[in-house]
Amino acid sequence: MNKTIYIIRHGQTDLNFRGVVQGRGMDTDLNDLGRSQAEAFYQYYKNVPFDHIYTSTLKRTHQTVRNFIEKDIPWTQLSGLDEIGWGIYEGVESSDAVKLAFADMLGSWVSGRLAQKFENGESPEDVKLRQLEAFEHILQNELASNILVCMHGRAMRILLCVLLDRPLSEMDEFPHSNTTLYKLEYDGKKFSIIEFNNTDHLT
């Protein structure tokens, strides 16, 4: 069954604004700007006949698509769509030491060392495994051809590599900002990108 999948990142939170590390371990609310981004996305896409909404289990994704949920579109939370776990860096304020640690870790991933992770955190390979399970569930829903997915920045980069059958080491080739849209088509066998890093709703 062919499907059109709209994958968006959640709206801004205060931790986004402050540059604080925010992964799977931080269940934060949207801030005022994040709520306005969510409203702008809704106004731009409210006439798309979505059959099903999928979000992570974290409330910043629920809040981003709340207007669609309130239209009684079926909604499912999947932990497989949660943000990557940043382990001991969850909730940590940005500093030179933190920036260096992240630069080293991202460098490891780009060079193909995709099992690397921070203490108590997750690696891209860990995230890929739970995303494959989540998307198997999504694709088995035969009642849904137009699907809205709301998730998180790093997890979205990993997912796009997974769906497009690209190595995870290329994940940073998918830029994002809050409420960025990636629109994909699925022909029953493979995915293709129709819209890349689209933020038209914010202009």
Automatic annotation (TrEMBL):
One GO-annotated biological process of the protein: negative regulation of glycolytic process
Record-level GO cellular component terms: cytosol
Recorded GO MF terms: fructose-2,6-bisphosphate 2-phosphatase activity
Binding site for substrate: R9, H10, G11, Q12, T13, D14, L15, N16, R60
InterPro entries given in the database record: His_Pase_superF_clade-1, His_PPase_superfam, PG/BPGM_mutase_AS, Phosphoglycerate_Mutase
Record's signal peptide: none
Keyword Hydrolase set for record: yes
Presence of the UniProt keyword Phosphoprotein in the record: no
Keywords from the named record: Hydrolase
Highest taxon above the source species: Bacteria
Active site: H10 (tele-phosphohistidine intermediate), E83 (proton donor/acceptor)
UniProt xrefs under PANTHER family: FRUCTOSE-2,6-BISPHOSPHATASE TIGAR (PTHR46517:SF1)
Protein name in UniProt: Putative phosphoglycerate mutase
The organism of origin for this protein: Arcticibacter pallidicorallinus
